[in-house]
Design brief:
Shape: elongated
CATH topology of the largest domain: Endonuclease III, domain 1
CATH architecture of the largest domain: Orthogonal Bundle
Helix content: 55-70%
Number of helices: 13
Structural class: mainly alpha
CATH superfamily of the largest domain: Hypothetical protein, domain 2
Strand content: under 5%
Number of strands: 0
């Protein structure tokens, strides 16, 4: 599948998922930020289940900033890596103090404990801030090399490759690939026949009978 015009090729994919909200069920930017931190190495579904109780205890950044790491940990003790996550949430809430102070630039977000590039890109996308990068989660790490728009398994390298190939206005391709990976381009038995990308997909074209 050499010589694919990727800026053109990804447009049907972006169109398919345009405006689709992230699977985390958040109500505002504060909730989004907390849930993004909690969801690392855990499932969005699980975080959605524990979120209502957590936000009843800590309804905003100010309330969270006044809680001890131990009090936070009590609310998230069945979340993976909850010990570190409770410390990160305590620390970042004390830095931010109030919901209105939540930063929306990549540099400021990634300076916060518990927030890497992927998390920052998710927060920016869902907040409607201009993209400074491309979301590369575990689904994109699978989908992008299958398509052959990128190679390898390192999220940062995959993001860099895609940022070089696609203009900024198409950087929502990352989240679109994530949705595609959840729904169609599954780890086993991907539904290639119904995929909008199958005409340009190296995986599909190499495995066709």
């Amino acid at each position: 599948m050499a010589n694919v015009n990727w800026p053109e090729a990804v447009k049907p994919l972006i169109k398919k998922y345009k405006g689709k909200k992230h699977p985390l069920e958040y109500g505002n930017t504060y909730q989004l930020l907390v849930m993004v931190v909690l969801s690392a190495q855990d499932s969005d579904k699980h975080i959605n289940q524990i979120a209502p109780k957590f936000f009843a205890a800590f309804p905003n950044m100010q309330a969270l900033s006044q809680a001890t790491p131990e009090a936070i940990a009590e609310q998230i003790n069945d979340v993976r890596n909850f010990g570190n996550k409770s410390k990160w949430l305590s620390e970042l809430s004390r830095k931010i103090k109030q919901d209105k102070n939540i930063p929306l630039t990549l540099d400021e977000l990634t300076e916060m404990p518990g927030i890497g590039r992927k998390s920052a890109n998710v927060i920016k996308r869902e907040s409607g801030a201009e993209a400074e990068g491309i979301i590369v989660d575990l689904h994109v790490v699978r989908v992008a090399p299958r398509l052959s728009i990128a190679s390898g398994t390192d999220p940062k390298k995959i993001e860099k490759q895609m940022m070089e190939i696609l203009p900024q206005k198409l950087w929502d391709a990352g989240m679109a690939m994530s949705f595609l990976g959840r729904e169609i381009c599954r780890p086993t038995n991907p539904k290639c026949e119904v995929c909008v990308m199958n005409t340009v997909c190296a995986y599909y074209n190499n495995n066709k009978n």
